[in-house]
Design a protein that fits this description.
By secondary structure, this protein is mostly beta strands. The protein is 0% helix and 41% strand. The chain contains no helices and seven strands. It has a four-stranded antiparallel sheet with strand order 1-7-2-5, with no helix packed on it. A hairpin with a 6-residue loop joins β3 and β4. The protein is elongated. The protein starts with 19 loop residues before the first strand and ends with a strand.
């Protein structure tokens, strides 16, 4: 019997809770499986990301444990020292 999902008919939005999560392996060459609506950082440190909006990669320095509310296509290995990163998706 399938699980009851009372949220399946709700529209996705940037402020809505994520519907899917995936552990991130930082890479300088491989994008995430989809655009992440945000990241969760489980071990503090620097997080170097490629924002979806384009432009150069940026480093979010000394990020504490917690959520990083930025839409990204890639978490780069070079420059990322934070650990236990999880990408959150709709």
């Amino acid at each position: 019997m399938p699980i009851n999902d009372p949220y399946s008919a709700h529209a996705a939005s940037a402020s809505a809770p994520a519907r899917r999560a995936e552990a991130v392996t930082p890479s300088d060459t491989v994008d995430l499986s989809a655009v992440a609506k945000s990241l969760y950082v489980g071990g503090p440190g620097d997080v170097r990301v490629q924002p979806v909006g384009g432009g150069a990669a940026v480093t979010l320095a000394a990020h504490p444990i917690g959520y990083l509310p930025v839409q990204v296509s890639r978490v780069l290995a070079t420059g990322t020292t934070a650990t236990s990163i999880v990408a959150l998706f709709d």
